[in-house]
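Listing 4. Sequential folding, example run.
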Amino acid sequence: MDSILEQKSFQFAIRIVNLCKHLRSTKKEYTLSKQLLRSGTSIGANVAEAQQAQSKADFISKLSIALKETTESKYWIKLIWATGYLSEKEYSSIVSDCIELEKILVTSVKTSKDN
């Protein structure tokens, strides 16, 4: 069974893919959305890789990369919003999901390091 982190990071990736499709089709925005697509989908991929880690250090490393990608995604989301491509409502919804993932990852990395 998938962990909450796996589920949430996968659902976030779906939202990112759909947002990027929307930005490309309706706003004709390709550059920023490509950056967001890379970082936003990388979170779940690294979480999935962490599940097959070869060691505790490898597990922590994969989760740390996922955390960095979450921070990068949050940056791109804020930039896309600040440049007028997202409404306040769209921004608030997706950035809150990103912040939630960030908090879970911070806790997971910290817990893993402490054990």
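-- end of first protein; second protein begins --
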Amino acid sequence: MEENTYIHLDQETIKRIDEKMPPEEEMQDLSEFFKVFGDVTRLKILFVLLSSEMCVYDIATLLGMSQSAISHQLRVLKQMDLVKNRREGKTIFYSLADAHIVSILSQGLDHIEE
């Protein structure tokens, strides 16, 4: 492989950057992860679940949306490990998967409110 020539970068800086750069597969996963936050409905669901675990019916009622629309978005959030669920009888309750989600939402809000 031919070595690149840089105008302002020394080899030490290039090496440091290369060492910190995640592998391509992780970058793809990270990209998909952040895409999930690019949908207003999914963000609203996450903010609802910040307060309390809830079933689809209650989330749909609270957000003024159909249960099928909420179910679809919850499926996406669950696939990305942002929410988890538990069954109680016939009802499934959803909650945030872990404290990381709270931090991500909080830091995102802090950033845009600066």
